[in-house]
Amino acid sequence: MDVNEIRRQFPVLDQQVYGKPLVYLDNAATTQKPLCVIERERDYYLHENCNIHRGVHYLSQMATEAYENARRTVARFVNAKEAREIVFTRGTTESLNLLATSLGHLLSPKKVLITAMEHHSNLVPWQQMVKLYGGELLVAPMDDNGVLDLQAYEDLLKQGPQIVAMAHVSNTLATVNPIKEMIRLAHQYGAITVVDGAQSMAHLPIDVQDLDCDFFVFSGHKMYAPMGIGGLYGKTEWLEKMPPYQFGGEMVDTVSFEKTTFNKLPFKFEAGTPNVGAALGLETAIQFLEHLDRAAVAEHEDLLVKTAMEKLATIEGMRFIGQAPERSGLVSFIIDGIHPYDLGTIIDKMGVAVRTGHHCAEPVMTRFGIPGTVRASFAVYNTLEEVDVLVKAVERAANMLR
Ligand code: C6P
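A: This is the predicted complex of the input protein with C6P.
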C-alpha cells in the first residue's frame, strides 16, 4: 500500500495551517474526501442533476438509475440480501431516529438495552422512545479498560428488552465490541438488534448476513463520502412491518383526503427529495475503499494506533482512556493536571488537528470521572511521520501547560 500515492488523492491534506503542515487526525469526526468522490458529486451537478423517481424524461431516468445503482453498491458492500434492505438517510443519527420512532410505533417497547459506551445518537433516541412508552433504558456496563461486561449484558437480556442497540466500534474508547456474539445472545432472548456502524464502516469489513443483525446504521462522511448521506440496512421482514418515519412525497402509493397507502420498500422510508449527488459520492467512496487492499489498510491503521500509543505512553502523566485489546482507528487520552481542551488548542497551533471534549458520549466521561479526552483518530492516508508530529506536539504542549 503506497500511502503517498493515496495522499495525492486528498488535496485538502496538502496545506499549511498556522504556517505548519496540516496533520489531520480527526477522522472519527469526519474523513477527508478523495478527488474521485468530489468529482463524482460535481459531475452529477454538471451533467445529471434531476429529481428522481418522478420524471419520464431522460435526465430523470438517468439520475434514478444512478441513485438505485448506488443503493445496489451499498447493499453489496455490506452483503445485504437485496437492495431494498438499504434505506438512504442523512447518516447514522437520522437512521437511529428513524428506527427509534418506527420501532416505537410498532412495538411500544418497555425495555431497550444499550451499552455504556454509546454515542448520544445511539442513546438519546432510545431513551426518549422508552420514556414515551413508560419504559426503561437498560445499560450494559464496561470495565476500566472500556471492555463490555458480556456477563452483565446477558443478565440484562434476561430482563426481556425488546430492542438491543450497540456500537460496533466506540468513538471515544476505540473498543471493537464482540457484536456477532452480542447479536446471537440478543436473539436467543428474543430481542431485535441494532448495530451503530458509524465508526466501523471505514475500517472493518461488514457482512450483515454473517452478523445476522436486524439493523445496521452508518454515515457516509466517516467513510470518505460526502456529508448528508448515510443509511440503514434492515431485514426485509422488519422493514415490511414497520410504519413510515416521515410522511410526504415519494413514500406514498395512493393519497386521498381520507386515506393514504404507502410505497413499497425502501421508498416507504424515503420521504421527499433525497440527496442524490451525495448518494453517488457514497457509491464512489465505496469503490475507492474496494480498490484498496482492506487487510493492508487495517494493518496500516493498527500500526499507526499502536505506534502512537507506545510513543505517547512515554509522556509524564499520560493516561489512556480505552485500552481494550480489540480496538480500531483511534487513541483517546488525558494528561494529569491538564485540561484536554487546553492541550488540543495548543497542538492545533502546531498544525495538529485532534478532537477534544466528550465526543458526544458524556456518560463515558462520567464513567471514567474525567471532563473529556484528547482523541487522535486515523485514516488510510495518515503516516508514521504524522504520528511523530503528534507525539512531539503533545509533549511540547504538556511541558508548556505544566
Ligand atoms: N461521531 C465523532 O467525532 P452522524 O453525526 O449522524 O454522522 O454520526 C453520529 C454518530 C453515531 N455513532 C457513533 C459511534 C459516532 O461516532 C457518531 C459520530 C463523531 O465521534 C461526531 S460527534
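The chain has two domains: 3-27+294-401, 38-290. The mean pLDDT is 97.
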